[in-house]
Design goal:
alpha/beta, binds inosinic acid
Length: 427
């Protein structure tokens, strides 16, 4: 059985946790391939609600092995507290595997993230402040600390000292902050080594062997397509590749092994942090979407910006990820609107544009061109099949599918595990 990728088709927070969890029972490995504890998945199992930041949501499915791939950045203190929080609630986390090549978010990376944002003032990115960007910057600059470095004190010492030589200059001279003592950082990091040791493994080998043995491997993206460092709304993006290609580089599994790429698509649009968002609403409708959809960040507690569905973005996500399917989430949130606007194109400097403009300047000027679709007022949360949906809800889904360029294979009609309509099986 080949590998599947599940990723956000918009700006993140599309409800991936629910989708991965739905597949969890039939999946052998759930692998995160990028990002860190900037992500936030809420998974509802029975009457229990779990908020996960770093751990793959497969951690909640007993038969499944959760994996943190080499492309992820790991804050050990967050990881350990997430694990002990789950253990206290009776969840067995012993199967977790962490790549020895994953990079570590050090305390100084978190400091640099926060002070840089403060320094940028009005021009800030609105990061989650978790040290994600600075850790990836260190990785690319070849001064990063990897999980495997925790097991060689002399290498760890050299690397931390080298990194801090430069960072302390910046912190003290540019940002007017106190220098960070290398020995304290080293001591803290060494303190995590033994606690993490049982989980550290050659995940590249394990995943490729699993695929050879016909196991089902699910790659779970954090954030979303429009937050991708290469394909997103740069510079208002995260510092990794949530798009499908990231699943290969972030795990060491080749593209020929991937058979399905599933985009999670919310029935409307949200974004956190700064950056362009053509269908953003500043009126009562936006407020209503936020309230009904519970659009508040799992990680930061920030209110999400809300707007209508944007088909231009969905088409773009289909293209850059090679999507084979969509999982449409939160359709129930739209219940009660008489008419639902859907953005079908943009108007940029008086011209109609059907596709996402590659120019940042143009995208900043894009105004949504809306088509009005008739709404529905019936409760849809008990719908088990597509035909159980009211006619107008069916037509809304069909219209989105046609505009977005890939089949909608599942629909979320409520937050619970079983509140999903499966149209085509993902496996
Ligand atoms: P960073 O990932 O903390 O560097 O933040 C960069 C941008 O990505 C900011 O706009 C964040 O709000 C956004 N972001 C990061 N993680 C998520 C996520 O899981 N969902 C939605 N937005 C996110």
């Amino acid at each position: 059985m080949p590998a599947l990728v599940l990723l956000g088709a918009q700006w993140g927070d599309e409800g991936k946790g629910k989708a991965t969890d739905l597949l969890g029972g039939s999946v052998d490995y759930v692998v995160r391939y990028q990002g860190g504890n900037n992500a936030g998945h809420t998974v509802v199992v029975g009457d229990q609600k779990y908020a996960l930041h770093l751990l793959p949501s497969g951690i909640l499915s007993p038969g499944c092995t959760p994996v943190i791939g080499n492309g992820v950045v790991v804050d050990p203190s967050v990881l350990l507290s997430e694990l002990s929080g789950l253990n206290e609630r009776g969840v067995d986390t012993s199967k977790l595997l962490i790549s020895g090549n994953a990079h570590i978010i050090t305390p100084y990376n978190v400091t640099v993230d926060k002070v840089t944002e403060r320094f940028l003032g009005k021009r800030k990115i609105g990061t989650t402040g978790r040290g994600i960007g600075p850790t990836y910057a260190d990785k690319i600059n070849r001064v990063g600390i990897r999980v495997q470095d925790l097991y060689d004190e002399s290498i760890l010492t050299q690397k931390v000292e080298a990194a801090l030589d430069v960072k302390n200059q910046i912190l003290t001279k540019l940002y007017n902050r106190r220098a960070i003592a290398a020995d304290q950082v080293i001591e803290e990091l060494l303190g995590y080594a033994e606690k993490l040791r049982p989980y550290v493994a050659d995940t590249v080998l394990i995943l490729n062997q699993a695929l050879e043995q016909d196991k089902v491997v699910l790659f779970e993206g954090g954030q979303g397509t429009l937050l991708d460092i290469d394909h997103g709304t740069y510079p208002f993006v995260t510092s990794s590749n949530p798009t499908a290609g990231g699943a290969c580089t972030g795990t060491g599994v080749g593209p020929t092994k991937i058979s399905r790429v599933i985009g999670i698509l919310k029935a409307y649009t949200t974004r956190v942090g700064a950056g362009p968002f053509p269908t953003e609403l500043f009126d009562e409708d936006g407020e209503a979407l936020r309230r009904i959809g519970g659009e508040r960040g799992v990680t930061t507690g920030r209110d999400r910006r809300c707007g209508w569905f944007d088909a231009v973005i969905a088409r773009y996500a289909t293209r850059v990820n090679g999507l084979t399917d969509f999982f449409l989430t939160k359709l129930d949130v739209l219940t009660g609107w008489e008419q639902i606007p859907v953005c079908v194109a943009y108007e940029i400097d008086g011209k109609r544009v059907e596709e996402l403009p590659y120019s940042q300047t143009d995208f900043h000027h894009a105004k949504p061109v809306y088509e009005m679709l008739p709404g529905w007022s019936e409760d849809i949360s008990k719908a088990k099949s597509f035909s159980d949906l009211p006619k107008n809800a069916q037509n809304y889904v069909k219209a989105l599918e046609e505009m977005s360029g890939a089949p909608i294979s599942a629909i979320g009609v409520g937050p619970g595990r079983d509140e999903t309509i499966e149209i085509n099986s993902f496996l």
